[in-house]
Amino acid sequence: MAYSFDKIIDRRGTDSLKYDLAARRGMPGNVIPLWVADMDFPSPPEVLEALVEKSRHGIFGYSDTISDDYFNALADWYSNRFGWQLSPKWLVKTPGVVFAICTAIRALTDEGDAVLIQEPVYYPFAGSVRANDRKLVVNELVYRDGRYSIDFADFEEKIEKNRVKLFILCSPHNPVGRVWTKEELAAMGEICLKYGVKVVADEIHEDFVYPGYRHHVFETVMPEFADITITCTGPTKTFNMAGLQISNVFISNTDLRKRFKQELERTGYSQPNIMGLVACRAAYRHGAKWLDDLISYLVSNLDLLRDFLRKELPFIRLVEPEGTYLVWLDFRALGLPDKELNELIVHKAGLWLNSGPMFGAGGEGYQRINIGCPAAILQEALERLKKAFNKV
């Protein structure tokens, strides 16, 4: 590989949410944090160089993408990677995907309207629905024979019974790691069309797909889907720069885009973070090889995790991910209540993972682990886990 991801960088004392929040949240001082979706790798060198160059200029006034360079970088990336042909007028920039989801909820629904999600799922989905005084409806994913699938009958029944107005799709899915097939996406989309349901597609993890799988942009699966969909993307997960707060939302339908922009105006948000713009453009222009090497490294980390669990901790079941660097682990064979399981993992093993119940229905007995770190850190975490469970 042209790029190395083995170097361990000390992130403590850098105002890192992942590392420096531990004590405030009651974690032990020596805890290894493998929780939030934030990798322990520097962004691509080309991104760092672009940020340094901008810093040397020394003026950070109100900024936006005046030339075509920014959009063209995005358009080339999505065309080359996903076969998606973008139009400049579709693009709306926001400081983050969760921000965009909340904006879409307010733009496309009224208070009391039903919004459907598929749990266990990224926990801000449920929080965003509730915080905006909408009715939360859950289509629980089905786990069978080591793989998650969609209960389409329940999906349709929940939509019809609750008069659902909006569906928030997680694709690829966090935390269960599914990369939905074209057929699965088509089935969900056709049901949404049938009942007049709009779709917010969170595709932030689209670039993390393992060999043998392919991410399909939801709105491209069928031509009709473009008219009901708001697609939320961004470079922040892919290139590890969430703190720069930039996401790219694509809305091809004129009416949906108008409603979204009107709601965006009500938030008071206008020009994006200049450093986010600079980093995003550089990442999409120059980060392809870095990303390809990163995915190869993540495959190696996944192999390490799989082999270790098989040999040393066979009672912990790996839910094989098809995408993302967030891995879903099944601890249910231990028969421990989640509170006891968390106590063991945090205070005995010294690991900070994400407890399954925070992801909603179906999360009991599971934990989410972030493998976006140097292999040596992952190895140490697994050794700690083994030592803790050997004492049980």
Question: Helix and strand layout, with pairings?
Answer:
Layout: H1 17-20, E1 32-33, H2 45-57, H3 69-82, E2 91-94, H4 97-108, E3 114-117, H5 124-131, E4 135-138, E5 142-144, E6 147-149, H6 152-162, E7 164-170, H7 182-194, E8 198-202, E9 229-233, E10 247-250, H8 254-267, H9 274-286, H10 288-312, E11 317-319, E12 326-330, H11 338-348, E13 351-352, E14 354-355, E15 366-370, H12 375-390
Parallel strand pairs: 1-13, 3-4, 3-7, 7-8, 8-9
Antiparallel strand pairs: 2-10, 5-6, 9-10, 11-12, 12-15, 14-15
Salient structural properties:
39% helix; Aspartate Aminotransferase, domain 1; 12 helices; 392 residues; 15 strands; four-stranded antiparallel β-sheet; alpha/beta; seven-stranded mixed β-sheet; Aspartate Aminotransferase, domain 2; globular; 2 domains
Notes on the structure:
- The protein is of the alpha/beta class.
- It has helices at 17-20, 45-57, 69-82, 97-108, 124-131, 152-162, 182-194, 254-267, 274-286, 288-312, 338-348, 375-390, and strands at 32-33, 91-94, 114-117, 135-138, 142-144, 147-149, 164-170, 198-202, 229-233, 247-250, 317-319, 326-330, 351-352, 354-355, 366-370.
- The radius of gyration is 21 Å and the shape is globular.
- The model has no long low-confidence stretch (mean pLDDT 97).
